[in-house]
Every structure is written in structure tokens, then in C-alpha cells.
Amino acid sequence: MLVCPHCHTLNPEGRQYCSQCGASIPSHKPVWFAAIVSTKFTASTLPPYLDPKQRYRFFDLGKLNEYGDIETRAYDLQPQLPPYFNSSVSSYSADSHVPKLARPYCDPRCQANSAFPRLHDTWEGDDYTVVLLEDRSHLSRPLDCWRTVSPLQRLYWMYQMLDLWSILTAISCRNSLTQLHNLHLDSDRAICLQRLYADPSDRPPTLKTLGKTWTTLFQPLSEPPPPDLGEFLQQVERGVLADSDAIGDRLDRLIDALERDETEPTAWEDLEIVEEDDATLTVPIPPVVYLAHGGKTDIGRHRPRNEDTFAIWIQRDWRETPADRTLTSRGLYVLCDGMGGHDGGDVASAIASETVIETLSRQWNDGLPSETAIRDAIDRANQAIYDLNDEQSRHGSGRMGTTLVMLLVDGDRAAVAHVGDSRLYRLTVRGGLQLLTTDHEVGQQAIRQGIDPADAYSRPEAYQLTQALGPRDNAAVRPDVRFLNLSENTLFLLASDGLTDNNLVEAHWETHLKPFLREPSNLDAAAEKLIDLANDRNGRDNITAVLVRVSLRSP
Fold first, then answer.
1. CA distance 76 to 80
2. C-alpha angle with apex 56: 55 to 59, nearest 5 degrees?
3. 168-183 per-position pLDDT tens digit
4. In the chain, at which end, N or C, are there fewer CB atoms within 10 A of the end residue's CB?
5. What is the residue-wise DSSP string for 172-227?
6. What pLDDT was estimated at residue 2?
7. 3-state per-residue secondary structure call for 15-68
8. pTM for the whole thing?
């Protein structure tokens, strides 16, 4: 958000003129949320500046919260200068030079989780301490839309609050979840916090307090919650369920029951009536699609370098008119695994991912690119690596190469394409885990020719690739391409063979994938868990995991 220097109205980034007074808005004055602890100033006597160099100007009337802090907003008059605070500090120990008010934000668990606000700057004076955080005051709040969202969405938010509770317990800031005005919703409709509130030492919040917070959220509803949910809320608030794991298990069961209900065939109330001449047609209302993703790559335990790579291209288009609102989400996700043991595998994987992203993003207009366009992008990637091999006079096993698997999502349609043995899985409530790709390797080729799978993979060359990008010209590359309709919430996993070897995904999807099908959940954390699993169980190769969650919601 940017602030108008004349009337101090907040405006979205990218806006050139103020929506309130029409004045020109300088694009270099970002707004920060400020929390101030002071024995000298009050909310009404707060001066324009508190920092010694008069860099940050406060433009809101400060508000005194129930803990005695002053909360306001400020904009940076000198954003080209580094903050007073050293952002490289990653410790919040008692003897740290970081002010006490700012230390929880420096905890690595907070820094790694986007639900917690980023600390921009902090400093102390003789009688005050100031903390500047990213401003989330313009975001919507669960409190304001609790009545209008689906029952399943409410349970998702409760589940996320329970996840955050464990981190907040470790840093003694559980009060941050019990202040409903402090809860906001990010662009993925996941709960995020504006700031951290320290727990009082004499009466720290308990899970009963969290239960009371949940009950408060349900109070404005015109109808009471269903009996099973109402009983659950009472048990948490009264302390009958006093353990996070027990509460999480009950939430799991409530969510599973609702998810099964929501995957039933489309009901009449979800249909739009369209009159055409004398006939009346029922047309399903297209869902609004939200995309979330997370990814990580790791060198593994034995390789000298990482030849895996991944690339992601996202486009969100929000359009609003007096009569309608539409949100279009489209994403392109590419994973490449440089050919093991071949010099330049990391170069080949980088060329392939960059070429495909650049080619398809430029020509992606309405709807998914055609199969011809997808194949053309892959051909361009193959040709670029092939030409470089020739330029460098590479021969035989010295020719660089890479696998490729990619996912394209546009609204409730998706496309999958791959070359080699990198895989793509799909997870849904109704279908469970499904492998959408077939490895291009000698063993699979033998199975297609009618050879028994056990015999096919008993051969020493069974895992040798039959296709890859780079070693041979385009005539030898035949990508598999398929298109999908998305009719329910879906979690996709793109994975290199360092993760998929030994059927690791098939053996552990219920613990390492299923919890992340629900929104909101942290897909970066899911990728991290998969990497750790692969290093423990496989580890011989580079490991890459890219997760994509497609959430379909009623408009």
C-alpha cells in the first residue's frame, strides 16, 4: 500500500493518483504498521516522527490497545536507506540487542511462515520502543466474512489457527490469535496476523481461550452450528478437549465428513437457470479457482551438485464491474531433472525450464494453450539444448540432457506434459492418489510390449531413459500431453526421481500429502517434509518437489 502525501489516504501499489484527492502519489513511500510502547507518549500526543532522523512519519491518529501499546501507521520518507534494524538477526535471545518488543518476529519459525508479519524496522528511544511491520490493515478479516463463507471454510480456518497455536505457544504470543481484529486473510484466503501480542505472565491463554475465540466467531450466525460441531466447541471451551492433538483429530473428522458431503454430484441450488426461446436449461455456475504452490529442491546425500530445477509462472486477473466480479487464476509449473552423470545436466535443466516458461507465457491468452502449442514449447527447449550440445562438440554420454514434467492450470482446466521419468501425481478426496504420467524408460516400454512387470524391471537397463530433452533432435522427442477437467479441490505434486524412487510417494502420501490438500496449509512446509523423507529413505539423487493446490469455490 502507498500513502498520498497530501491527504494521507492509502492507495494500492501501482496507482498514480490518489483515489481521494486526485494528487499524484510517489511510488517510493511504502506504508508500515507501527506498534509503540512508551511511558512518555500517549495516542493523542504522538509526535509526527519518533525516529531520530525523522525518516518515518506517522499519519494515523494512534489507537491505544488493551495492552497499553499504541498502534498506528507510518510511511518511509527515505526508503532508499537501509532500516535501523539489522534484518540478518535470526535470534531473539534475552541478551540480543534487538528490542524486546521485536524479538518474537526474529524467531526462525515466524520468519519462515507467511502467516506472521515481516519485521521491517525497529528502534528504541529513552522512553519508547517502535516496531514497524508490513501493513495488513487493508486485508479482509475472518470476523467480517465468517457468516458468508462455507462451513468447510470455517473449519479450515480453525485448523490453521490450531497449527499457528503451537508456534505462538513456543514464543509466548498466543494472545495474537485471541484478538479477532488481529486476524486477516491473505491473497490465498489463509489466515495471517497483523502483529504479535505477548502473553501476560500471570494468566497466559490456554486452549480453552482458543475455544472461546472460536465460539465467539460462531455467535453472529443466524443458526447455531450443527450438533457435532457445537459439541466440539463446547468441549474445547470447557477444557474437556485440552490437548492439541485431540482437538486436531476431532477437526480432522469434522472436515472429512464435510468434504465427503461437498463431493456429491452438483445440487440444483448450484445451477444457474438460463431461458432460451421456450426451453429452460440448467447450466452449472463456473467455480472461482484459487491457486497456491510451494516448491523445494535439494542436492541429496551423494551428488556433487544439484542438476534439478523448477520454475513457476503465475498470473491472476481480477476484474470488477458494477454488475460482476471475476477472478482468473492461471499457472505454469515446470520441473526438470538434468540427466544423472551427464556433464552439464544443470545447464540443460535450466535451459528447458526457462524456454518453456518464456514460450508459453507469451502466447497464453484465453483458455489453456493447445496441445500443438505445448509440444512446440517442448520442441524449442529440446532444440536449444541440442544446438548447445553441437556447438560444444559433445558426443555420446557427454551430451547434456534433462527430463521435463509440467502442469498448466487455467480456471477449472489443466494440462499435463512430460518427457522422461519425472512424475506428476494428483490427489483428491474422491480419487485418492493418482499417478498421471508414465515413466519414459526401458522397463515401462517393455511392459507396454506385454512383458510381465517383474521381468521387465529385473533387467539391468530397466531404468534407462528412452526419452529426454537435448541429446537427440526433435524427431526423437515425443512428449505425452493430456488435458484434465477439475471438478473438486486438487493437490498436484511434480517430483523428480530422487523423491519417487522406491514408491516413496505411494507409501507415504497419506501422511505427507493428504493434510496439505486442505486449505489453508503451508505448501512450502509440505515440500520440506517430502525432501526430508526422501533424504532419509532414498538420498542417492537430487530431490525436487513442487506442490500445486487448486481450490474451487462457489462464486
1. 9
2. 140
3. 999 999 999 999 999 9
4. C
5. T-THHHH-GGGEEE-TTS-EEES---PPPSSS---HHHHHHHHHHHHTTSSSPPPH
6. 53
7. CCECCCCCCECCCCCEEEEEEEEECCCCCCCCCCECCCCCCEEECCCCEECCCC
8. 0.59
